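ok so I'm stuck.
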Amino acid sequence: MVRTVYLPAILAAGALGQTAFAFSSTQGQLSTRIPEYLPKLTSRTSITVQSSAANDEVQSLLEKARKLREEAAAMSGKTVEEVEEESRNQKRMVDEAVEKARKEREEKNGGNFGGRSNAQILPVPDDARAQIQQAASAVERAFKDGIVRQTIRFALLGQEEAMSGEVNEWPGGAKQMYREAGRPLTEALLNEIRAYSLKEDSSIEDCRSPPIVTAEDIWDFDGSALITAKAASGSHGDVKALVFPNTDTKYLNDIESVDKEVGTDRLFLLVNPFWRNIESWGFNILAPNGKKRAQEVVFDNGYEVTYAVLRFSARGEDCVALKSYPYDWQLYAYREDPKWFNQETPLWLGSSKEEPTSSQFSELLNSRPEFKMSKNMRQMQRMMGNDDQ
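replied:
not stuck anymore, here's the structure
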């Protein structure tokens, strides 16, 4: 996995997309992972420039892109063509793997739309697409077991972000989180989920058809919204998801209202709520009974965490805790892969019945020989040509 930083290339006469370059987060070097559309920017993009100043700006940006591609190739010891071909092959392999998993899932279901894979230890998802597939599997398994009120906690990844990349600090706050990650992830999840029991008037083709997904903003400054998936087979397959609710009493009212509307047999999700447990409701003079009401509306009604990807740091190492119903939490830590330049691989550390803490990760890291040296020490050893084990 490559840590990537994406540099938007906002060009004249409209945005032509994003020019992406991968840099080493530890050594400041360019990686060989360059999106396949980058080398084709000049040959496949036709723009009309109405002023010489705008044209000069475009040419300047394209020239910088060309030089960066050449620099990336030079630092990796490969030609530009080899780097571009490697990037295309990597993308093709990812697309083929996703498509293969989708086909295998449909074949295994054989008309039983309640579940997907039964693997007990799932790998860390590489990106947003893989995360959505895992989440849909977990949600459907839980729904099949009768859990109709669930909580989902995504790792908030943009479309082009890698799980192993730097955690986005979201300088734009909740509005940016919702616009770039919360809403796209939730809409994709609801488009993937098939959560209903087959009825006599529902055909298999209707059940396989994608739903119509719509979003209704609640409070723009909170980045909150209610997203609905209307199933092609009828309202018995509809799903609702409340994105980014927080401890304001308004959201307790919204949750209670949607809960009644959905009923006892349809699926309702809370996506990345801004609370961890009942203690998140402190004393509020304007809502003195807020904690009690939260207990009644949320925690007494289930809303079990059925899928979660939590990213954090322990002992200076990048760690991931993965929960996928009905299995235990899986604990991973990223480590540099000596076989590949500027790539990291998640290593499985163990599992936990409860949501793990950073101290648990530290204990597991201390017991593993791969992490006996700190990340900085391992980097120094590699720079000196020594074994970092």
